[in-house]
Amino acid sequence: MGKTLSYKILENHLVSGAVAPGNEIQIRIDQTLTQDSTGTMVYLQLEAMDIGKVKTELSVAYIDHNMLQTGFENADDHAFIKSVAQRHGVLFSKPGNGICHQLHLENYGAPGKTLLGSDSHTPTGGGLGMIAIGAGGLDVAVAMAKGEYSLTVPEVLGVNLEGKLRPWVTAKDVILYVLKQLTVKGGVGRIIEYTGDGVKTLSVTDRATITNMGAELGATTSIFPSDENTLAYLRSQGREADYTPLCADGDAVYDGVLEVDLSSLPPLAAMPHSPDNVDSVRSIGEIKVDQVAIGSCTNSSYSDLMKVAAILKGRKVHPDVSLVISPGSAKILSRMAENGALADIINAGARIIENACGPCIGMGQSPRSGAVSLRTFNRNFKGRSGTQDAEVYLVSPETAAVSAVCGYLADGCASGISLPEIPDETFAKNDNFIVYPGRADTSSLEVAMGPNIKPFPRNTALPDEVSATVALCTGDNVTTDDIMPSDSRLLPYRSNIPYLSGYCFEKIDGGFAERCRKSEGCAIIGGENYGQGSSREHAALVPLYLKVKFVLAKSFARIHRSNLINSGIMPLVFENPDDFDDFEVGQSLVMKNAISQVRNKTVAIDNKSNGKTYTFATNFSDLEIQMILHGGKINCIKSE
User: Fold this and answer.
1) Is the pLDDT of residue 187 over 80?
2) Cis amide leading into 78 (omega within 30)
3) Under DSSP, is residue 279 helix (H, G, I), strand (E, B) or coil?
């Protein structure tokens, strides 16, 4: 029986366990990345482990999220991350260099390597043939400290691509089609592996767009083979030596296969308010557009923006449309300034903003009240743009650009505009934005700790009886944006958990935080796919600070479930989903004999308010049990 590419790479990095679905394994991690929204917590945790140099081949700290410096907070965070990076042998990417995933693709990603990142879109690296996994910050800190990562082996779903995309149909449309077929929870417990003759028609940046949005499927990661297109991309970045050809065996067996005929796809859009709410641009119709935003880690590559420039050249952005563009890296912006494409974009009436995540995370450029905003980003959750009543659609850069000119959602196939071929380019190395760590002993370097940086909360060992009051009941597909909002108001306080705690669940229930503060312990009741979206650890750390003891849900998103366990909060799954309807805010719950119940992997909880007892599945691995018993991952490590 042949092997999938995913399992080949996992086996090549295996430290312990056996690579088979459902098994717990440890793998060697070659590279890590962090960004500044999650990075302060990562490096506070790394400091708490009291290590010297990191144990990975390469670790990079990127600054790309908290870029607005309206006060001292963000600049202090950047200084803190830089100082810790110097101490521990981590490369530091200065503000303005670009978006972490685009930069890592350009400069460091390599076929066959493993990458762990404190950002859910780390799977972008799968476009280069990497096993690239998004994780919570503590998992990344431990990977830097030990060079290893533990995970449950996912199944591998094959997506067989055949045919070739027609003009105006793009890689963004491919992943939107996959999302429509599988939904936002269709990738949970899976690696998505792309195969078939259609793969060779897609460039590395096309592939990276697809693997980037595999995060929206809930997948552990997504991956493409490494082939001649991979070599061409690495050669264009001056990194031909990093090339290794990699593919699945010809007789590889997958746990399921999705067939996709590229030639049959039309331009697509994800409608409000979910990435899987997908239909064709033509079917949606010519809705009036108020804002268009092009960029983010999904679609800010050189080829993406050059196509945008070609569409805008000699044309004018519609008077009613605000068009904003954020290039993926300084290298891309520089080349476009040199070849005149940047002038074409500006002359059309577009606004150019910094090479950063920006509007994708609600960091500026929020649309007006009730606006329709077309975005080339990866998420369109309600309120994520910073405007609660905005209608956000996800589209390709080509669809976004032609719509900006027309003033309505436009199908480029009917526009009469010809799209040019973007010629291959060679980019010179530019590391002027990179601060390299010193080679000598740096352990005595002082860490820059600004007044806004507060210690992260720590849990205590699990007691034998756990009592909690239901503080919140939610529906399906609650996102980490819902749990801990991320926008220009709050991002400057990412290193200040006490301050953030006042805003936990504010979009769903503004009284949640106050109820928790008045209680000795809290519980949250959730529906399906609880905690989908970003990898932000704050969505677990803030509830920990607010004394949340367990979350009872129908199912959990992968990264958030791990973050809860890392914090010592129990994620418990209803054995009977209909029991969900019995729970109300204010009810008193108690888990007796908690230690033995967790060890036995099934839990009974008494609802003292209605006199009933409910059973829950834990699905905890042996390592996760130890983390719950010790009160989190840090405590577990220290006990060793």
Assistant:
1) yes
2) no
3) strand
